[in-house]
Amino acid sequence: MKKAWKKEAGTGAAICRRISILLLSGLVLLLSGCGLFTANLEAEDWLSLSYASLEAMDNYEFSGSTVIELSGATVSKPITFQGKVNDHRKLSVQSTSEQSQYTHPSQILRLLKQYNGNGAEVSEQETDSETGASLIKVTMRENKEDAQLRWSEQLRNQLNESITDEPEQGTAQAAAWTNELEKSKRELEEMLKTLQVDSVIDVWIDVRSILPVKLHENTQFTYLRDGEQVDESRKTVVRIHSFDGRSGETVQQR
C-alpha cells in the first residue's frame, strides 16, 4: 500500500510556513550544537522545535500499533503499521488494517503542532537505560470538543473506507447491500450523538537532536449503543527512528 503526500500549494502562507520551519530548524542545530538546551524550556517550545526538527528530516522510518479494548477486554488483534519517508515527501507504508489510526507521519506532525500551547506540560525527564540518551516527556490532554470532532470525522472515514465489493446495481443483492450500509450509517450517527472522548498524548523528545522519537496516545470513549453505555479505549504507540537512514543512536525501543 502506497500513499503520497499532496503537494502544498505555492501560496504566500505556504511559503511563510516553509521559511518558519527552516528558521526553527537552524535554531535547533545552533542551540543543540552549543549545548544550550535544558529541561527548562516550556512544553510548547519543545513541541515547536521537535516539529521543525522532524519536518527537516530527509529520511526516517516509523512504526507502531493500536490496541482496541471494550470494558477492559481486548476485542481484536493489535493493528500494526510501519513506513518510510524518503526525500521528505515520498512515503511508503504498510498496515494490517485499512482502519489503522496512524498510517502517515503527517498525523504525528499535526499532533505536535496542534497541541502547541494547548494544555501541554513537561511531565518528565529521563535517561534511556540502553542508549544513555536524555529524553523529555511532554504530556498533552486534548480539548474534549476538539477530540469529539476529530474522532467523529475519523470514524465516518473508517466506515466509508470499509465499503468494498459493492454488488451490481439493480440486483437483489445490491438492494440488501444498500439497506445494510444505510443502517450502519444511521447507527454510527446515533452513536456519535452521544460520543464523549478523553484523549491524552505523551511525546518523548530527544534532548540532543530535538527529534520526537516516540508517541503514546491513550483515548477513552463513552457512547450509547442500543440504549446501553459502552466504554471503549484505543491505545496507540508510534516510534520514529532511523533518521536520515542511520540506525539512530537515540531511538527508544520500548
Give your account of this protein's structure.
The chain is α+β, with helices and mostly antiparallel strands and 254 residues long. The chain contains five helices and nine strands; from the N terminus they run ααββββαββααβββ. Strands 1, 2, 3, 4, 5, 6, 7, 8 and 9 form a nine-stranded antiparallel beta sheet that branches. Strand 5 (121-127) and strand 6 form a beta hairpin. The chain starts with 11 loop residues before the first helix and ends in a 13-residue tail after the last strand. The relative contact order is 0.16. Residues 1-22, 24-37 and 245-254 have low confidence and may be disordered.
Summarize it.
The chain is an alpha+beta fold. It is built from five helices and nine strands, in the order ααββββαββααβββ.
In round numbers, the mean pLDDT is 75
Which percent band covers the strand fraction? 25-35%
Order of helical and strand elements: HHEEEEHEEHHEEE
Total number of helical segments?
5
Which class do the helix and strand fractions yield? alpha+beta
Shape category: globular
Distance between the termini: 26 Å
Main β-sheet, in a few words? Answer: 9 strands, antiparallel
Helix content: 25-40%
Kindly provide the radius of gyration, computed on alpha-carbon positions and rounded to a whole number of angstroms. Answer: 21 Å
Question: What's the number of extended β-strand segments?
Answer: 9
Q: Which parts are unreliable, with pLDDT below 50 for 5 consecutive residues or more?
A: 1-22, 24-37, 245-254
